[in-house]
Amino acid sequence: MSPSPAGWYPDADGTMRYWDGLAWTDGPAPASGANGRSTTLPVPQVNHTMMLSLGPTASQLAAQAGAYAAGSADDDALTFTSTPRDDRPWFQRKRFIVPGALGAVVVVALLLTGGGDDTPPASPIAAPATTRPAATTTSDPTPSEVPTVTESSPTPTATPTTEATATIDQGAPPLRGTYDAAFGTFERFTVKGHGDGVVDLPSGVMAALVRASHQGEGRFSVQVLDANNQRTSDLLVDVAGGYTGTTAYGFTDFGAAPTKLQITAAGDWTVTVSPMGSAPRFDGSASGTGDRVFRYDGAASSLRIRYRGDSGVSVVQIGQGYPDVLLNHDGGYSGTVPMSAGPSIITIRTGGEWTLRKV
Predict the structure, then answer these.
(1) 3-state secondary structure of 94
(2) For a tag on the chain, would you pick the N or C end, based on fewer CB atoms within 10 A?
(3) pLDDT in tens, 214-270
(4) Which InterPro entries match (predicted)?
(5) Which domain holds residue 322?
(6) Do residues 356 and 285 lie in contact, with contact meaning Cβ atoms separated by under 8 Å?
(7) Cβ atoms within 10 A of the Cβ of 318, count?
């Protein structure tokens, strides 16, 4: 439907109001002149751009102005007024704001409803539709014996010179730790014999414990040999008569790798070779008689040493560097010496009674 042409139209109460083709003017018609008509009619300010699509043509405006003038052209001049042009930005005008708001509401509604798709979204992880059987409670079965598997190791042999007999007793697996990584590890073994003999040492092991015992008269010695059967500086035992003690090889000789133990004896003897990691740990106090070896894992401290005996006593600590002689004394002794932090090995070489205590 096309809009009504611009012009003056009576209101319900008979008041004349001007229609500019788009909206009513606020004020009524001006006062009448002598001939009962308005002396001045508003002349609309025609927006030619808007007229192309919305406003009346120029001929229509002229015809309407002539109808209301109804008289001489010399009467008061015709003046047309129109509603002031809306200079607000386009986004502030109602005809843009209202449709835009309605469009935004429609977009939000579509997003909330998933664009009209009634299919529910798939779960990112589909749980398998499996049915678990009911648990059945039974009495615990009697555990079966699990055979112990030990690593194979070279079989040590004893080569006595006089009526020597040797037997090998495989022991429990040794402890593992920092000491095994530093000195090497293997399965502990024991060799028994009578008279002179030779015991093969584990290959590739640079240091280990040797516990020896001898029953009988005469000399008893345990000497370490290299691959050429030459003596090293490790003379572990050299006594007359009976003996029981624990020593260690590999700390005083820095030449060729040790390969054998040469046993010199007139009676029965027993030798057990164990990894350094199996040495008992020194926790702050220890006492005993004869040769012993400990591992120490604590902090630097002071060590109180007491010794009762007529022979000499030697206490050595072997850490990351060269062996540190804590004590080397003949006869009885009582005193305090400094001790380095572990991990380290502590050896005691003596024939009498001794006591160690960390202070």
Answers:
(1) helix
(2) N
(3) 998 899 999 999 999 999 999 999 999 999 999 999 987 666 789 999 999 999 999
(4) DUF2510
(5) 280-359
(6) yes
(7) 22
Tokens of 352: 């009498």
Give the mean model confidence (pLDDT) for residues 74-103.
Answer: 49
In a domain, 143, yes or no: no
Q: Report strand pairing: 268-274 vs 301-308.
A: unpaired
For residues 226 and 319, state if they share a domain: no
Report residue 263: phi and psi, to 5°. Answer: -105, 125
- Tokens 């010179």 correspond to what residue? 161
DSSP string, 20-62: -SSSEEEEEPPPB-TTSSBS-B------HHHHTTTSPPHHHHH
Q: What is the pLDDT of residue 85?
A: 52
Do 298 and 255 lie in one domain? The reply is no
Quote the pTM value: 0.53
Residue 218 and residue 246 share a domain: yes
- The answer on pLDDT for 46 being more than 80 is no
pLDDT digits (tens, 9 = 90+) for 314-350: 999 998 777 899 999 999 999 999 999 999 999 999 9
Side-chain half-sphere exposure of 273, counting CA atoms within 13 A: 31
The token duo for 226 is: 């290299």
Closest CA to 335 of 308, 314, 312, 307: 307
User: Residues near 319 by Cβ (< 8 Å), separated by ≥ 6?
Assistant: 340, 341, 342, 343, 344, 345
The secondary structure of 113-163 as a DSSP string is TTTT--SPPPPSSPPP---PPPP---PPPPPPPPPP------------SSS
In a domain, 164, yes or no: yes
